[in-house]
Amino acid sequence: MQSLPHADGAIIGGFTDHHVHLQLVDHASLAGSRLGRVIDLGGNPEVLTSYAGSPRFVSLRSLNDREGTHGSLNDREGTHGSLDDRDSVREHTTRSLSERAPATQATRGELRRASVEFAGAFLTPPGGYPSDRSWAPTGSFREIADEADAATAVAEMADAGATRIKVASNSTAGPVFADAVFRTIVELAGARGLPVVAHAEGPGQAQRAARLGAATLAHAPFTERLTEEEIAEQAASVSWISTLAIHDDADRARAIDNVRRFHAAGGAVLYGTDMGNGPTPVDLNPREIDALREAGVDGAALLQALHPVDPSDPASVQLLLPEGDADPLHAQILEV
Which domain holds residue 219? Predict the structure, then answer.
């Protein structure tokens, strides 16, 4: 356990982004961000294992020297489009380190990098989402035909080091699993101590995923407005990862309305951005924070959704919240 420095304010661990796609961003930029933990919800498990095993400490000098060499996400092809594969350009682009963390620029030390957890590949039926998406990296989805395939895939993800299993249930983009196969995946994952996170998209899919045993929805429901009864059932059984800022117009309004009522009903809301879905910052996302506040998730509830890591962990990112200021966007990075 490391000792904590004396400072005017509250020292907390780096924040958690519960929904990222590291193969679709410059993952090295996590160093120097305010994120202490990221959870990848769909990628090649062999690649993600290498990310999870990367050194947790990096030189601030080398980070500054690298600044500006990789270009913004807008300049790279193959990024993960919005959920319905719209080609609209997001106004929010990856900010430079100097914009993200001005407090760290005056000195040359070391910075801790966020820890990486992952689900491995999307498990999806043959022809299911995201098997037809150009942004999906090789090995980032596994097509499951039956219970035997499910057993093999869950075992492979678990053996690779996955901390949860990702199931695609997107009826707007192709076939979804039969109930029996979905339940089998949940049971197999549970036997390995792994919760199931479901991408539930399309009419009735959020309720179906919860009924079949998913622990978490990868996206707050956005394709339909849930009834009050459905909200109560969801609040009692699953958590939601927010991902509100990836949406526009009607989808955004529905998602925020659902989250507002889900949160009011006592549901667990987790901060997550779907990092890599368009030009998202590899850091805390102000647009996601703003959307959560619009949905009524603020103050202590917002910090809880951000799930800071333990600042006394020797490998943990440490942040300073200025005295009397609980706004996570004002958190400053502390060096090693």
Answer: 10-334
Q: Which of 17, 67, 9, 93 is nearest to 325 (CA)?
A: 9
Domain CATH for 72 = 3.20.20.140
> Cα separation of 291 and 76, whole Å?
26
- In 3D space, the residue among 319, 317, 327, 331 whose CA is nearest the CA of residue 31 turns out to be 317
How many domains, in total, are found in the chain? Answer: 1
Decide if 15 is inside a domain. yes
Please give the Cα distance from 302 to 95 (Å, whole number).
Answer: 22
pLDDT value at residue 335: 73
- Residue (of 136, 258, 123) closest to 197 by Cα position: 123
Looking at the domain assignment, is residue 3 inside a domain? no
**Rounded Cα–Cα distance for residues 237 and 81 (Å):** 30
**pLDDT reported for residue 168:** 98
Phi-psi region of 202 (alpha: psi -120 to 50; beta: other; left: phi over 0): left
- Which residues sit opposite 46 in a β-bridge? none
Return the SS3 of 270.
Answer: strand
| pLDDT at residue 188 is higher than 60 | yes
Cβ–Cβ under 8 Å, residues 42 and 80:
no
- Let me know if residue 5 belongs to a domain: no
Contact 223, 172 (CB under 8 A): yes
For the segment 215-231, the average pLDDT, to the nearest whole number, is 98
Q: Is residue 299 a part of any domain in this protein?
A: yes
Half-sphere CA count of 322, side-chain side, radius 13 A: 6
